[in-house]
Amino acid sequence: xxxxxLLNLSSNSLFIAFILLLIAILPIGLAVKSKRKMFGKxxxxxxxxxxxxxxxxxxxxxxxVDHAPVSNMYEFMTFFGIMLTGSYLIIHLLYKQxxxxxxxxxxxxxxxxxxxxxxxxxxxxxPSLQSHWLTxxxxxxxxxxxxxxxxxxxxxxxxxxxxDVTKKSISTFALEFVMYCLIVVIGxxxxxxxxxxxxxxxxxxxxxxxxxxxxxxxxxxxxxVNDAALTTDGEQIGVLQxxxxxxxxxxxxxxxxxxxxxxxxxxxxxxxxxxxxxLLKPLTNRVQPALMDEITYRAVVIGFPLFALGGLxxxxxxxxxxxxxxxxxxxxxxxxxxxxxxxxxxxHFRLSKGWEGEKTAWLAIIGFGIIVFNQVFVNLVIAGLHSxx
Length: 389
Description:
- It is found in: Membrane.
- The chain crosses the membrane at residues 12-32, 44-64, 76-95, 100-118, 138-160, 172-195, 254-276, 297-321, 333-349, 361-385.
- By secondary structure, the chain is mainly α.
- The protein has two domains: 68-164 and 287-380, no CATH class; 166-274, no CATH class.
- It contains eleven helices and five strands.
- The radius of gyration is 21 Å and the shape is globular.
- The chain has helices at residues 3-33, 37-65, 73-95, 98-116, 132-162, 170-198, 248-272, 276-280, 289-323, 331-352, 358-380; strands at 202-207, 213-218, 224-226, 230-231, 240-242.
- Strand 1 (202-207) and strand 2 (213-218) form a beta hairpin.
- Helix 4 runs parallel beside helix 6 (170-198), helix 6 (170-198) packs across helix 7 (248-272) and helix 10 (331-352) runs antiparallel to helix 11.
């Protein structure tokens, strides 16, 4: 079977899995509101089927590219989304809480959708990636991040169940802001898809931070460019010019995401005439807060040591092989350390200070924010050795 055929089959498997997960939200939502077990069974059947197809995608793409498909943003975010689906199924086997899927699956879909906006093209690995430690390091980080993300979903559920979302407070404002951030990601997916389908690529020439001529292919309308950037025709472009130490093309994508995401959020609020957290709260009426708190804690207990292995230990071994040093204070390495220290503090406060309930939920949400910042913003905007991703 040819490489092209394998890649097409893998992409089709992933697309069908995405549709099945999207459909699964409906019966799972009905299962949360109804006492009939049939809805939950249908939702789980769809989720298991989708996860199986996701694994088919992963295996077929691995065979096609002849290395673990986790070497760029598309492959990593896709694998992250797959592992989040798998993590939910594991948690459901342990705790039988279908409501966790109602909040986990949409996050998984957002991650998969986010990954889909990046190029799916197969290219040869750069020398630093030609190592088995790439597979071990990145897959462990993705799996551990997915398990830690479960604590984000259960933290959201706990807060929706326990907070009086009809009253204005710092907690309700912060929780609504989390909803806004998720809408921003959806906005990014939408605007990226729109520009990819309707606009031609714009080539922008500029000098990078090393003073060398570089060309960036903008798929989105260039609002932000680097200093002295010009088009192929020699014309100035962009609304704002920034330092060449920052990847303007990727920052441009983030600005578009916030613009479109904010508009989408405002439209939703105007239609609903109430905050999103008020709309979501009824879905948690049958939830046991203590059980959600327990799942949040257990997810961190499992995910934290795995992240320590993948994000630090395995990463340092790979760094020594690739760059002849275990640690170099690259932005990605720094934020991996910050993530490790945060979750170490999480467990410390939980075990020694008795931080339970609402405090645990907020720590889980902040931790997920750090993971997303590390995997998205650091990769896309801050220049470093991991910028190839």
